[in-house]
Amino acid sequence: MRNLSLVVAALLLLGDRPRGTTSRLLPRPLPHPRGGSTAVAKNEKKRRRRDADVEIVGFWTAEGPNPLQVAANHTARGLGRVGGKIRRDAAGLGENAGREWTKLASGTRRFVAAGLPRPPRLRLPFLPRRGSAQCRKLDDVCRTFSSVIRSGGEVDTARLLRACRAHVVLMKTGGSSLRLVARDYEGNVKKAERAYRASRKESGCASLASLLESERERGAHRGSELGERSGAMGLLWIRRSLQFQSELYASLARGEVRPRDAAREAYDRHLSPYHGWALRRVFPASLSAMPEREAFLAKFAGVEADELDDERVRTVAKKLRSLVATWDPLLGAWRGEYERLGLEDTRRV
């Protein structure tokens, strides 16, 4: 009974102490070998959390801290921890993305600096070989020029300019050797097109002769000296360029002379007499870069040089002969109109 009385007295003493205090009558648990008892650590953690809640809330209720304020405090602290973690993760993600992007850019620069090998040409046996259909630009030139001369022998101005425009596209496929000739030719085509549009509004000028007569009557020329911006001047140099190319294409079709030699002979006959000192040195220099006959014919055929076979050579040569045959009567009628009207300007430029 005496021992039981002592136990009850001790419990009563513990029950009268304020909340949050511990009894000094009971011994503390023995320390844990790793630095403290697990129960003591948990109790201390709960006590610090409760004290923090009390400190933030700032007042007590009759039963202790306000539960709503404690819940709000816990929510705010949790959101703060989540926000901090998101910021750290975003910063880490940005660093990783920047590092990977640097690696990718460095690898791409090394790959490009090493040079890209040309992939081998794929030849599929079930696909048809490209034939004469690839001469589309050459076919367009042949077709458009074939309809320039009307049944009465007159030269249709609109059809002539349309054919010259198609020929500009063909000349640009001839490579750097014909680049200067093509540029000069295209400039004269534009000049003739502007004059034709202006004259058509006034008098129609459906034929070449009517266009030349209209400009002469308006006083665009001084005798045989043509106006620099007139359609007659543009058409004059278009005709001389076609005469030069007609002889060159005829030589390419025959295959007896190297293209650069044939081009030089054609230039000396049709263009050099009307070129000044500067042009007589610029044009031959550009023509000296003309490729060999096979490479030239391959450009007109629309294929690579290694794809050019005997059949394609015969096809392109036949089309060139047909084009030259179409040009011969046209150029004759063209020159005849200039001589009849006294517009054959022989000055050098």
Description:
This protein is mostly helical and 349 residues long. Helix content is 66%, strand content 1%. It has twelve helices and two strands; from the N terminus they run H-H-E-E-H-H-H-H-H-H-H-H-H-H. The chain has helices spanning 2-15, 38-57, 67-114, 136-146, 157-172, 179-203, 208-217, 231-254, 259-270, 279-287, 293-301, 310-341; strands spanning 60-61, 64-65. Strands 1-2 form a two-stranded antiparallel ribbon. A hairpin with a 2-residue loop joins strand 1 and strand 2. The longest helix has 48 residues, at 67-114. The protein is elongated, with a radius of gyration of 48 Å. The chain starts with a helix and ends in an 8-residue tail after the last helix.
Mean pLDDT: 79
Taking the sheet with the most strands, its summary is: 2 strands, antiparallel
Number of helices: 12
Question: What percent of residues are in strands?
Answer: under 5%
- The chain-level structural class is mainly alpha
- H/E element order: HHEEHHHHHHHHHH
Uncertain runs: 14-27, 30-35, 55-62, 122-133
Query: What is the tally of beta strands?
Result: 2
Strand adjacency order, main sheet: 1-2
Backbone CA Rg: 48 Å
Q: What overall form do the CA principal axes indicate?
A: elongated
The amount of helix comes to 55-70%
In whole angstroms, how far apart are the ends?
Answer: 141 Å
